[in-house]
Amino acid sequence: MSKLELKNKRILVTGGAGFLGSQVVDRLHKAGANSDKITIPRSRDCDLRTLEACQKAVQEQDIIIHLAAHVGGIGLNKEKPAELFYDNLMMGVQLIDCAYKANVEKFVCVGSICGYPKFTPVPFKEENLWNGYPEQTTAPYGIAKKALLVQLEAYRQQYGFNGIFLLPVNLYGPEDNFDPQSSHVVAALIRKVYEAQVRGDKKFSVWGDGSASREFLYSTDAARAIVMATQFYNESDPINLGTNYEVKIRDLVELICDLMNFHGELVWETDKPNGQPRRCLDTEKAKDKFGFVAEVDLKKGLKNTIDWYRKNAN
Fold this sequence. Notes:
By secondary structure, the chain is of the alpha/beta class. Helix content is 41%, strand content 14%. The longest helix has 21 residues, at 81-101.
C-alpha cells in the first residue's frame, strides 16, 4: 500500500471551516501536512457554484478534498430539492473539471449515502449503488453527489485523473449543525430534548414512527477515514465509511433521552416521513483498502456531543 506523503503538499479543503472540515484539517496536520500549505476557501469570498471561483480555488494545489455541500435533514430536502440538486452538482462538476485542467495530483470527493437505492439490501455494499432509485425525499441531493462519482470515473478513464469517491454515513459530533431548519437527526434530537428540558415540557415530538434505522459515524472517525483514504487509496471504486452498527430511530431517541436524563413522553408524528427505511453500510472495503475501522462507539459519541451542546447552547 503506497503512501501519499502530505508534507509540503498544497492542499485545498473545500468546506474546511465546517463541522467535518475542521476535523479533517486537524487530522491533516497530524498526518504531516504543513499548516501554511492548507487552503480553506470561505463561502462568502468563494462561491464554488461559479466557474470563476472554482478556477481560482484550484490554482497551484496538489490535493483537493471536496467537503463543501449544501446539505440538511429531511425537512430541508423536502423544502428545497432544486437548490440542493443545483448547488451540489455545480460545485462538484466544475471543481473536478477545473482541478483536472490545473493538473491537480489527487481529488478526494466526499459523497453521500443518500445516493443508495431506497431498498438497498442491508448492509449496503458499494456494488449496489446503482441498483435502483434513491429514497425520493433525498434523491435530488443524493443523485447530484452520485453524478460526481460518474465524472471522476470518466476523467480517470479518459485523462488518467486520480479522483476517489467516499460514501460516509450520517455524521455527528461536537460542533455539528444544530439549526432546527437544516440539522441532521442526532443534532436535531439533542436540541429538541435540551429545549424540552429548559421549558420544563413533559413530552416532545419526533418525525416518523421510529421504525427507520440509521448508522452514525463520529466526526473524528470520519475525518481520520478521509485522510487515510487521501494517503492510501487510489482506485475508482467508491468506498463506504461507517461503523457497520445499525440503530432504529426509536432506540436512538430513547438513548439520547436516557443520556440527557429526560423522562417525558415521546410523541411520534406518524404523518411525517421516515426517510429511507434502513441504512447500514458494509465497511469491509475501507478496512481492506486502507485500514480504516471506526473507534468511537455510539454511546460515547452521543455523550461527547451532548456535553458539547450543553456547554455551547447559548
